[in-house]
Write a structure and sequence with these properties.
Elements lengths: L2 E8 L4 H10 L4 E6 L19 E8 L4 H10 L9 E6 L4 H7 L4 E3 L3 E4 L11 E4 L12 H12 L6 E5 L5 H8 L4 E6 L2 H13 L6 E5 L9 E7 L2 H6 L1 H6 L1 E13 L3 H8 L3 E3 L3 E3 L2 E8 L2
Parallel strand pairs: 6-7, 8-9, 8-11, 9-10, 11-12
Antiparallel strand pairs: 1-3, 1-4, 2-3, 5-6, 12-15, 13-15, 14-15
Family: Belongs to the methyltransferase superfamily. PrmA family.
Protein name: Ribosomal protein L11 methyltransferase
InterPro entries: Ribosomal_L11_MeTrfase_PrmA, Ribosomal_PrmA_MeTrfase, SAM-dependent_MTases_sf
Length: 294
């Protein structure tokens, strides 16, 4: 089915109202895009976070008379001579195939590859994790996930135990197991993450070595040789007492989900009990690693 799209430049104050109006007059979908590519971080639960210079993009059936849509926007005072807008036809594509084509096998470190199931494995002799994009966060495409995967690849995980705190898709725990870890534990607050991690572990043949717990159900005496937590700076600082207790003496800790501007405050929170390595940074995000002191 063919579509026609209208794109309006708006502001954070007006975008929600315009979106509601476009849906009322027949738009099948409305999305927001930052016209200046401004990153948005840590929205509150249930909050739709908008920003300045927001483009509102609405999709209509190709048979729609867009002159009527433009006139309606003007009459509702959502469009005037100061508002930039553009109307364009959208090519009818196999969107599922288009989406799948955007995901390719990715290498992290020296040994590790993350591969979607519909792609050929580039190196059969490498450590290959088969993982498809899904509902739970974490496929390796985000810089914080990449930083954690590269760190795990750099460790000698043979016979080690690993905890993935905030496991999401289970990508870090599964990668650790395939890199040689004896066993792993995934912890998350979201039941969907537990389900996704279990399914991904089964797909990779490591489900028998992965335990999964909701955060309030994890064993009180749980500890591991390696603990990795890829969440956000605020929770990392708040959960310092919990996360630090999960690391065995002289064990390794890896933290990410942290903006470079937040790195020092997270380091300050963990420096008392951990010998920290230099912060690794990528695309304004960073990773903090260290060893638990005696």
């Amino acid at each position: 089915m063919a579509w026609i799209q209208i794109r309006l430049n708006s502001t954070n104050e007006k975008a929600e109202q315009i979106s509601d109006f476009l849906e009322e007059i027949g738009s099948v979908s409305v999305t927001f895009m930052d016209s200046q590519d401004t990153p948005i971080f840590e929205p509150l639960p249930g909050e739709t976070r908008l920003w300045g210079n927001t483009d509102v993009i609405a999709l209509f059936d190709a048979e729609t008379d867009m002159n009527v849509v433009v006139d309606a926007l003007k009459q509702a005072k959502h469009l005037d001579e100061h508002t930039a807008y553009k109307i364009e036809q959208i090519e009818d594509k196999d969107w599922e195939r288009e989406w799948m084509d955007n995901f390719h096998p990715m290498q992290f470190g020296q040994r590790l590859w993350i591969c979607p199931s519909w792609r050929d494995v580039p190196d059969p002799n490498a450590v290959n994790v088969m993982l498809d994009p899904g509902l739970a966060f974490g496929t390796g495409t985000h810089p914080t996930t990449a930083l954690c995967l590269e760190w795990l690849d750099s460790l000698d995980l043979k016979d080690k135990t690993v905890i993935d705190f905030g496991c999401g898709s289970g990508i870090l725990a599964i990668a650790a197991l395939k890199l040689g870890a004896k066993s792993a534990v995934g912890i998350d607050i979201d039941p969907q993450a537990i389900l996704a991690s279990r399914n991904n572990a089964e797909q990779n043949g490591v489900a028998d070595r992965l335990q999964l717990f909701l955060s309030d159900e994890k064993p009180s005496d749980l500890k591991a040789d390696v603990v990795v937590a890829n969440i956000l700076a605020g929770p990392l600082k708040e959960l310092y007492p919990v996360i630090s207790q999960l690391v065995k003496p002289y064990g390794d800790l890896g933290l990410s989900g942290i903006l470079a501007t937040q790195a020092q405050s997270v380091c300050d929170a963990y420096a008392e009990r951990f010998v920290l390595a230099p912060v690794a940074e990528r695309e304004e995000w960073c990773r903090i690693t260290g060893k638990l002191k005696a």
